[in-house]
Amino acid sequence: MELSLTSNHAKAARLATNALFFISGLSFSSWASRIPDVKEKLGLGDAALGTVLFAMPIGSLSALPLAGVIINYIGSRKVTVIAAIIYLLSMPFLGIASQGWQLAIALFIFGFGGDLLNISMNVQAVNVEKTMSKSIMSSFHAIFSIGFMIGAALGGILASQGISTVWHLSTVGILDIIVALFVYQYLIAKDFKSSEAQPLFALPDKALMLLGVICFCGMLCEGAMADWSVLYYKQILGNASQYATAAFTAFSITMVIGRIIGDKTVAKLGLKKTLILNCSLLTIGMILALALPISWTVILGFSITGLGLSTVVPLIYSEAGHSKTMSAGVALAAISTVGISGFMIGPVMIGYIAEFTSLKIALSSLVILGGLGAILSTRIKN
Known about the structure:
The chain is mainly α.
């Protein structure tokens, strides 16, 4: 089914979808910025906190099998509002929780709602792509990254000013539902479906499975960089801990830049060449950061790595959303399941390898994954 909308409606739908990506990034980083405050309030040790935090990805994974089915039945537009309501209900309790098990329940619900929003807004992004007949998925994910950075910065400021976690997260939750309700009228009502018959449940075809493996490699690297890059750079700096986030900040900035220019890049090079380039940059960046452990080379290396990772997930999501054998919602849920598994496994894998060897050796696994991603990308058919 091809989507036919006026130019103005398509532009409005794009802006509305951008708003969803923004609040998704803002909400996630708002919570992440208050984790130290919650840890101190509940008196949790590192191991206990790690166990409690694991409830959020479990909630995300629990939502994935249902997301595609729900979207098939009621459409992604309605699911975005449901997800925003779940956010609204769960976010205050992330601050209210007075015991670890209460926080775990709140995080499970928060993760569940977050992934419903993730899948539904990406289906809307695919819808907009079809109406505009061009690849624009990277730009949506750039907006997510911008929302994430703003949320992290704002969270740090509010925490330093003594603003309570409950007030902060409750306000963000209210903002989520206000935005979702406002943009609802501008979202595309009928999701894109291929003209071919698509069963509700189906095994991914070889092409989708290949994309899933590449997505797994990319998100495993993202998870590892998010959790371990600051510690690695801090080891390089020694006592200059006030600058420990510089390399990760550079990584985050180039992620945004890469996503902003990603749509034009894929338009010129195509999916296959762009993914090969991405994974190659990831490999080169990590080799530089690990082989020359000097402050400026690590920053440069992490910057190249961020540029390489920037459009891996957006491009794969876009391609999955145009699957001929599965509906966009089911295909995206399948890809996300594999990708989030990598995001969860990455930090843990790096931690165990580092425990028995060193953090440098552990992070070397990202070089291997980047190379594997580049090799697998050569098998993609344009």
